[in-house]
Amino acid sequence: MNQTPTLYRAAVINPLNNGNWRYLPDAGLLIERGRVVDLQPIGAFGARPELPCVELDGVISPGFVDVHTHWVQYRVRGRFQAQLLPWLKEHIWPEEASFADSALAGALAEQFFKDSIRAGTVMGMAYSSAHAGALQAASDVTLGDWLIGDVVMETDAPDALVAASAKDIGELSARAGRYGPQRYAVTPRFALNCSAPFMRDMGQLARQQGYYVQTHLSESVEEINEVHRRFADAQDYTDVYDRAGLLGERSVLGHCVHLSPREWRCLAARGSWVAHCPSSNEALDSGRMDLTALREHGVKYALASDVGGGPSHSMLHVMQRYLDQHRAAGAAVAAGEALYRATLAGAQCMGRGAYAGNFAPGKRADFLLLPRLNAHQSVDSWLEEIVQGGIDDLETRVAATWLGGIRQNGTR
Ligand SMILES: [Zn+2]
Asked: What is the pTM of this model?
């Protein structure tokens, strides 16, 4: 860790808790021991000429947070056109089966985290495959602050994946215990791969030991119909998880595209988070999450790529699809809110809001550098512009990324 206080001079955008932001065109961001000490207009540091100063050409933003991704699907992201259930069976599960090879898993994990840093993602929640070895491989090379879990696949999956999955709560608890609640998330893949008793055991483990829970909820209509058939005594899909005790403030539910008002009320009452995955929902033709209903019910949410349903790990791409998708449906969304949902809200979703996600003093100095504003450009117009473009452009738009004040990459 860099112990020396360092002043970074650049424009800075700082997302605030209410979805607004503060923009400083010529700022000093003072970092010491990997933490933010102060953020002020550069003139405020005039009395401290002794501080080493790094001048950057661009806009410093907090690093991105991706609260739902599958690192084991990175190699096949966006590659197939299909609905959720056939896509899983035909393309994804065979790919995940190859993660039985821990050496391959290690190489691909390294690539995933390196590329994530390059795209500005410094934190997130990731699904691993069912294999204990692949989880360890990812854990060995993690860059940034991640919660990762091996997917539990007890039933209705290829034999090789069922065999690789934790069989019972004793085995899952032992796997989880190697990493602890700051690094491990209990990860029932989705209701269709799990029995009610095992889900109950997972809910209890998470509650008793403070683990995060991540799973999928209400992504496609076919999936929902199958859940209703399989769990006929539950009121609805959300109730399947609720009865298992899997819904709490540390629960992050991917998608939530087709929820009923009762289900929204249930998520609000439990204080659970939605991982909103607009680019994935579009790619798998799953539908549009009802942002208006989510807002009306006061449910918390953050943005996520859902690689490999989502075609890109770039959170700029996710922000673009979020804005386009909801605007096309007539919902009001601002680019500043997209930035908040891809940074501070993600940190809050992961229980790290007190020490990550923006530039409040004391927070971890995880940040990135974006292209600067044009002359006379407004910040709103700049925020719209930085999410424009194709996937290749968006994945390489971040010039450099810092973790705890240490530059990780970037030569521009
Ligand atoms: Zn997913």
From this structure: 0.97
